[in-house]
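[step 3/7] inverse_fold.run input=structure_tokens len=466
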């Protein structure tokens, strides 16, 4: 990515290589690495030293560099905890669809699953610099304001392109935390919540944990239909809609401009809130973004959640909720009850990153990379797996939502893909009720590069229709 140092890129590449090798395997020589990756011997030496210090590699003078053996772990005696099941009965946290969430792939597997950028797409050098500068601030370890650092709140307020100020913004530990807080603040146990179908499984899990009932609204090429929404509000008595109007996960669909105003009017007439998940604001493939629902809202209907995690890195757990009126006061109170405030060093690092010129450079580079990856994966599917039909998104996001042949079993397809060394996700877990067909979700942002994307489709080709 633009702005990243060659050392950071090489380190990411070597870490990926190590995952495919057994402990004790020998790495290519310094000369081979220099020639293959077009870096200097000094850079190779620095990266090898860093990975050796981290316990990833072992260097043996005169012999070479080798994959380190995993550290031995002493076996601890586990207590008998069977009694806990009786005490906790009836108070479980229902993970729902998250039980099938992607796990770390085995060595040699190409990942087309998960919701984060591969390290090759992350602004690693800029992140490291931001963390370093943040840690050197004299007040870095002081208590942060409950609502978040004012400068960071101002950044999120400005990014909405809506008529909001920093007092309307509450900093959170990522988008998932923001969703959970919003659902708990607005809904009461047993309430019905309208959701697009399909939708983000993490939202379904957060709704289930808050004892809220997800009611599906079908999603069309232009998003949810305002007439369907009006009928659903009337039929269920719901006072909350959760939606992803921009580059919807998993489909990539964008709620049309004409429907945005209509959806707001329907929700306002029902005296209902809308939780707008704006996770993909920085994931456009052409640089353009549609005005958010929050940007159209004049009644305080919309509570928007957003995050820096998706366009930056999984462990930059910094997000925000934007809300106005009494619901904002309730969210502020929830923050104080839950955990007082979000880690100040993490907020300072997020502020350092987003205020740096390198952030704009990263976003521009990310836009181009995602556009190219989307094209490469789509072209490869058309050439090698024509029976797998991607749903046409609108030029943004991280995924392809792929319809399988009518009789295909997504779970079996996922199992066979794993046998071929490719991690993909069944579409079933994205539906709050029955699925309207067999689908899989493919992430073009999770693989190391375009070569890996094409190799993944080559491995999937023998599966065909399942």
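[step 3/7] decode complete -> sequence:
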């Amino acid at each position: 990515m633009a702005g990243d140092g060659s050392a950071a890129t090489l380190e990411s590449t070597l870490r990926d290589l190590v995952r495919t090798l057994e402990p004790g395997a020998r790495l290519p020589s310094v000369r081979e690495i220099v020639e293959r990756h077009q870096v200097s011997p000094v850079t190779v030496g620095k990266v090898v030293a860093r990975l050796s210090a981290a316990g990833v590699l072992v260097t043996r003078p005169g012999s070479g560099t080798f994959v380190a053996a995993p550290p031995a772990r002493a076996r601890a005696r586990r207590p008998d905890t069977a009694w806990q099941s009786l005490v906790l009965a009836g108070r479980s946290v229902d993970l729902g669809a998250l039980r099938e969430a992607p796990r770390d792939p085995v060595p040699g597997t190409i990942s087309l699953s998960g919701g984060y950028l591969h390290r090759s797409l992350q602004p690693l050098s800029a992140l490291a610099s931001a963390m370093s500068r943040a840690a050197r601030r004299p007040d870095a370890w002081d208590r942060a304001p409950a609502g978040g650092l004012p400068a960071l709140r101002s950044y999120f307020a400005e990014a909405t392109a809506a008529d909001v100020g920093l007092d309307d913004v509450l900093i959170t530990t990522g988008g998932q935390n923001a969703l959970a807080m919003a659902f708990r603040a607005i809904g009461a146990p047993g309430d019905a919540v309208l959701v697009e179908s399909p939708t983000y499984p993490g939202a379904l899990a957060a709704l289930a944990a808050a004892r809220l009932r997800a009611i599906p609204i079908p999603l069309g090429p232009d998003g949810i239909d305002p007439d369907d929404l009006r009928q659903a509000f009337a039929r269920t008595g719901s006072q909350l809609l959760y939606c992803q109007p921009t580059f919807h996960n998993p489909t990539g669909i964008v709620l049309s401009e004409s429907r945005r105003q209509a959806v707001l009017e329907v929700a306002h007439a029902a005296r209902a809130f809308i939780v707008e998940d704006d996770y993909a604001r920085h994931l456009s493939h052409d640089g353009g973004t549609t005005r958010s629902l929050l940007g159209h809202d004049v009644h305080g209907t919309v509570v928007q959640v957003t995050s820096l995690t998706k366009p930056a890195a999984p462990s930059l757990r910094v997000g925000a909720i934007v809300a106005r009126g009494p619901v904002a006061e309730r969210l502020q109170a929830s923050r104080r009850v839950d955990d007082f405030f979000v880690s100040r060093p993490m907020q300072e690092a997020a502020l350092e990153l987003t205020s740096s010129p390198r952030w704009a450079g990263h976003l521009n580079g990310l836009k181009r990379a995602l556009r190219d990856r989307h094209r490469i994966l789509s072209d490869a599917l058309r050439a090698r797996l024509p029976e797998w039909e991607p749903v046409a998104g609108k030029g943004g996001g991280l995924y392809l939502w792929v319809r399988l042949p009518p009789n295909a079993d997504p779970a079996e397809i996922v199992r066979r893909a794993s046998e071929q060394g490719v991690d993909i996700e069944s579409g079933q877990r994205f539906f709050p009720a029955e699925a309207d067909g067999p689908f899989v979700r493919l992430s073009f942002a999770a693989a190391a590069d375009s070569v890996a994307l094409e190799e993944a489709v080559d491995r999937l080709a023998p599966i065909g229709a399942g």
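[step 4/7] annotate
The two ends are 37 Å apart (CA to CA).
Residues 235 and 326 are 26 Å apart (CA to CA).
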